[in-house]
Design brief:
6 copies of one chain form a homohexamer. With 230 residues, chain A is α/β, with parallel strands linked by helices. Chain A has 8 helices and 9 strands. In chain A, strands 3-2-4-5-1-6-7-8-9 form a 9-stranded mixed sheet. Chains D and E meet through helix 2 and strand 7 of D and helix 6, helix 7, helix 8 and strand 7 of E.
Chain lengths: 230, 230, 230, 230, 230, 230
């Protein structure tokens, strides 16, 4: 991980509450910015100050990198959300690294569907079949495919964050995105007796040899999410 | 915990029945009031007397703090509920600490949705897509986001209480709020043989180092929820 | 438990089939009647004779207490059910102790909803939103809140009985009522090898110190449900 | 069990496939008939010959008892099913013992609902509320209550058979009937290593002291279901 | 099993993928044909060649038995499926042994419902109640009952094959058929460490003494599914 | 596996994210191409470059085989998807080996239903019954049957890839396809302490003797998915 992810990869970062998803995402951009990359952090329904507060504890000089234009944080409100506009912003801004926080927030908002040529592909043909509303599952899959396909066509490396609900199957809230991305990293708590520890697992990383073990992690100022050897 | 929560944080307090959610919430306001804070307790569908009865056992002098205007308890009936009005009351009252008891009660009442500019954001665009009613999950997420975003924009520290149903996944009844708040505390029973003990876990606390272990708790007059070291 | 429940408390008694819910409820009224209280047993869709048969085995002189007007049993048929009328009967009858057997039976009958000012609170506002029928979960929560709030406003101590289905989460069939009452008692079977024993647990008792352990119970003539120390 | 069930009791007999529900039911009538009772076996969607075949293995002289009018088997087809007619037949036939095989078959057929004064109780009031179809759960509960209440008002002892699906909660397919009857007996397989044994448990028997243990059973010609002491 | 099933019995054969359901079914017909029976194999949505390929490995001379008219394989396409026609074919062909492969495939096709006098039994009466579409569960139960009842009225011994999905309750995909047939046989994998073995269990066999244990099985040319003693 | 699959077989390859489904599929075509077969890789919603990137790590000379016309990769977009056209392409191209990646992606898109003569088979008859939309389960089963039946009628050996979601029952996302194919291979992670290993299991292989054990696998350049003996 120290060496970053393969260029152009789209990584799913799926984590339980409080496991450091935001810090991991910022760390990705922070390390990139110091190596000449240009990063965009896309927060959905969250404010810039709240995100900066979390990075402050890591003692990173985010302010400087933001002022230099090496990192930009934007906060989307779902009512204005559009996949097309987002992709346009990434492209025109020349960003080489992108974090989307979070896919779960986008998927819960069906209005995002409009971006897809639903009128052309689905609706006409469905009408002929039955006057049934689009199943929630279909809408979700269409959106996940659209978002991941769009971002992979851009010339950037990306992290897509998903919420991971305890004791539910799959590696993301939607159970679909983990099959479409190039890599999957999960952040979870493991209980050992009365102790609870944060852990990181690389569940998938296309075209790359990687550890498949559970790694304990800690938050370390100056570093961020620090992966400990078992 | 003794030192309170970071200023401006929005904390989710999620607990099983009888684990002391109300006492924990009042303890938060009581300690704050004695340190010059001004606190508001928002009870949904519950009466002031019932809440005061529970605090009486803790031997706190709530009456005095209430008379001094340092703590106020209001009881909302869902039929009059409005996120906008609630936020207005918090702001105009100058409250620096707020407890909402409970998010689960609010989420069960779809009329609260009206506060959201649903007509603008969702309905128009959905109509073009399919004549489908809003999925329950979407409505829930919209409300959770609206409530937590609104309260975090105010200048106060807050606890949002959620019901935690045994043996169901997630850290709240809705399984969404735990991802949006700054911190999550759960109160649960753990069975050891035929004994059952209340325990507290800090599951998440942004920008703060915290114990991740299970801590036994007891109710202690003069204190409230007393956290024991393991 | 010998000393009864705190005055004015509303207790949820949740049990598996055959664990003694009816006997427990009658024992509550029987002990109360002998201490000068006036008790009402509200049976839903069950007949008085069936209930008396169960108490007869306990060798209680119910007949005498009924003739003296100290205990009354009424059998509601759901088609005539009305929360308002029930509350009126409790108030006008001057009952200080009430048992409702069972909440589960009432919740299964949506017509009980009429008692709630649904036309005022919910329907108008929902119509503006979407032509969706009321979700079952919302209707259930509205009813549970209405019943428990109504009975707690009366000047009486009450037990509300719920059915507890094996291996399903929560402490009642509805998984909501346990959060709204002042106390929760569960009656369950525990298998040890090929033996199966009835047990009682106090899961919640507001403003009261109580055992949190599993207690074996037996049916004892003259007593009713007899709690054994572990 | 040797001594039969308490007079007038309505017993739920819930079993996995192949655990002997039909034999148990016939054994109940067979023993009764030899003690002067008059029994009716109500088979839903099954033929008389199939039922007789199973009893033949038990070496009971069913034919004689049937010819003497001491036992009658009727086979209902659901399209002609009516609770009212069934109750009339039991009453006019003077039956003192009844077996209904099975409740699960009846509950799967919504047309049985017609027997209930649904037009009076539910439909009018629901229309005012919302144009929602009756929830499946409500319809099930209404039917279970109607059937069990009706049969308990008759002057007979009865067994109602339910299908028990492996690894699903509750003591019957509907998870409601076990709360409404006077007694519950379950027949299940228990795996011990590679051996699988049939067992019987009395889960509930109102107004009666009874074993709560798991009892191995065997099929024994001349007896039927033979309960072995553990 | 060597001696075959009792004449006239309808057996449910429920198995996980790859456990030998087709071979077991063919073995049943093959052994019967050599004893003078006449057998029909009803494949739904599968081709004759695919079925013959599987039997070829067992080194049975199916071709000869087919040419002699002792075994016939027919492949139904669901769009032409009709219970009435199928029963007519069995009757007129004089078949004494029948295998239906599979019930799960038939149940997934609602058009099969037409065979049932749905217009007479259900629809008229439902219309009076509520404009609700037929619940999936009701349709399934109606079909299962119709198929099993029809085939049991014929003068033949039959095997009905069902798909058994791992880690889902019940003994068939529909969880209903196991209660209606005369016998149930399941074929499953059991993991022991890293080894996985096929096993057979007789879960139910009316009017017959049978082993209730788990039996390892193997595929043995010349025999088919070979049951090993534990 | 070294010797490939039986000619004409249709194999389901079901795997968790990151277990090597794509590499396994390409390895199948790569080995075939070197033995004179002609292979087609059908990717749904994925780009050719992404697939080639994964094979590059295996150090296979895909480029050469593609240029020679021995392997072809096509990328379908669901909006243009048609079972008929796909089958036509396989047939006219003279392909003897086909990989479809993935069935799960196709099943999520209801428009694929159009290929089926739904108007003839289902819709007319359903209209007479009830104005119900086609259940999701029925649509899924129809599609799975159509795809697998179509491909098995062609003169080729095929692998159909399915997504396997952790801790959900069945051997594919749809839980149906595993019953219709000739063979099933699953790729899963198994946790041993803090180590996680990829494993392969042959769950089903018609007309073939095969290991039923769990086999550890590794990715080996020049080979692809390398199966280790336990």
């Amino acid at each position: 991980m120290e060496g970053g992810f393969p260029k152009g990869h789209c990584i799913l970062l799926s984590g339980a509450p409080g496991t450091g998803k935001t810090i991991f995402g910022m760390q990705f951009l922070y390390n990139g910015a110091r190596n000449g990359e240009k990063g965009l952090y896309v927060a959905v329904n969250e404010e810039i100050d709240d995100i900066l507060l979390q990075t402050k504890v890591m003692e990173w000089d985010m302010k400087k990198l933001i002022d230099l234009g090496k990192i930009k944080i934007i906060c989307l409100e779902m009512k204005d959300f559009s996949i097309k506009n987002l992709m346009k912003e990434i492209k025109e801004g020349g960003y080489t690294m992108v974090v989307i926080d979070s896919l779960s927030a986008i998927l819960a908002h069906p209005m995002a569907l409009e971006d897809i040529d639903i009128s052309f592909t689905l609706k006409d043909r469905l009408d002929r079949l039955a006057p049934s509303p689009i199943h929630e599952g279909v809408a979700t899959r269409l959106l996940v495919e659209k978002i991941i396909t769009s971002i992979r066509r851009l010339d950037c490396t990306s992290i897509i964050i998903s919420e991971l609900v305890e004791s539910v199957g799959g590696m993301s809230r939607d159970t679909i995105s983990e099959f479409l991305v190039d890599g999957v990293i999960t952040l979870q708590y493991v209980m050992v007796g009365i102790e609870s520890n944060r852990n990181l697992m690389i569940r998938k990383m296309r075209a790359t040899a990687h550890s498949e073990n559970i790694h304990p992690i800690e938050f370390k100022p100056g570093v961020g999410v620090n992966v400990l050897m078992p």
